[in-house]
Amino acid sequence: VAAFATLLARSAPVPIPTPGPAPPRASVAAELLDTEAGGDLKEHSNATARAQCGFVGAYHGSEDASLWRDGIAFVSSGLFISEQPGLMLALDLNAEAVEPVEMELRNMPAGFGFRPHGMHIHNATQRVFVISHSDLVEEESIVAFDIVAVSGSRIPALAFRFALITPEWPWWPEENIWWLNDLGVVGENELFVTQFGPQGRPLITKHLWHASWDEEELRPDGRLPCRAEVVADGAASLGLNGMNVVQGHPDMPPMLWANDLFLDRLWVFERTGGAGLRRLANMELPGTVETWSWTSGRGTSRWACAAARATERSSRSARRSRRSFSTSGSGP
To answer: What is the pLDDT along the chain (332 residues), one digit of tens a residue?
Structure first.
């Protein structure tokens, strides 16, 4: 969060006030939120969640994590330019001592410059798709890896399959926070992806994209040109980051949520097939949420949100953060 704020301040089109000599202390909290049948969201066991948060390992720039199966989570590392290369880490959450393990990346093209960001595990094809911002070749891409079992280990390897590219996703450097941010794979050859950059000058509106591809068009260098289009009737934002997709759920149609970061809300869509989306009411959030995830069970949907909050707030902002929050209308 600190690195993100530094980049945003560096690239902002207007000056951002810096804190005085005694700024309020800040904390990063995992917020657990429940939504009941009526659509209202409420806090759930946050004291427990905060007590269980801690650091593991000593790797750079973890930006996204996704649960695979059997308690194995994948984590991207090495987003920012540093002496550490881009890595994919695995955590065995069922182990007695949870420590990150570097996953073997097989068949990576030479000189690729992998810098992983948002990711999505597509269980139907046993592939993981990872956004990469290669400063080495100045290329924005989405890398697909096959998840490959490793004999005698619970931690799989990742085998490079292809890297999706398109002129629609131009290269922007770290100081502009790149172009793409997070994604959700919805089929064997299609996905949705959020655009957060570029931040700063020039001011460019950001969009939600749909991409599709044909593996028959794979090039010898591992790049696979894709067809990318802006969706949601061209709806614009100052920056979309985290997103989630749900399909095959017994109690709801295929859904998509995208985080409109600067306006503290989620865009909510019902998916209608292919690139088609039906816009529903926005879900208003109690503050700035960076990363979030959705699960459901026993009639309750649960949202886990990572947010930076000040521990000393004005009474107005404190009231705002404590209140229950809900969809403005007939959300899912």
So the answer is: 444 444 444 443 333 333 333 333 333 344 444 444 344 444 544 555 555 677 788 888 767 889 999 999 999 998 888 888 899 999 999 998 889 999 999 999 999 999 999 999 999 999 999 999 999 999 999 999 999 999 999 999 999 999 999 999 999 999 998 999 999 999 999 999 999 999 987 788 999 999 999 999 999 999 999 999 999 988 999 999 989 999 888 888 999 999 999 999 999 999 999 999 999 999 988 888 777 676 665 445 555 555 544 333 333 332 333 222 222 222 22
Nearest to 242 by CA among 285, 213, 297: 285
Yes or no: say if 184 and 245 are a contact pair by the CB < 8 Å rule: yes
Tokens in use for 307?
A: 């947010």
pTM summary value: 0.79
With helix as H, strand as E and coil as C, how does 216-268 read? HHCCCCCEEECEEEECHHHCCECCEEEEEEECCCCCCCCEEEEEEHHHCEEEE
Q: Please give the single-letter amino acid code of residue 306.
A: A
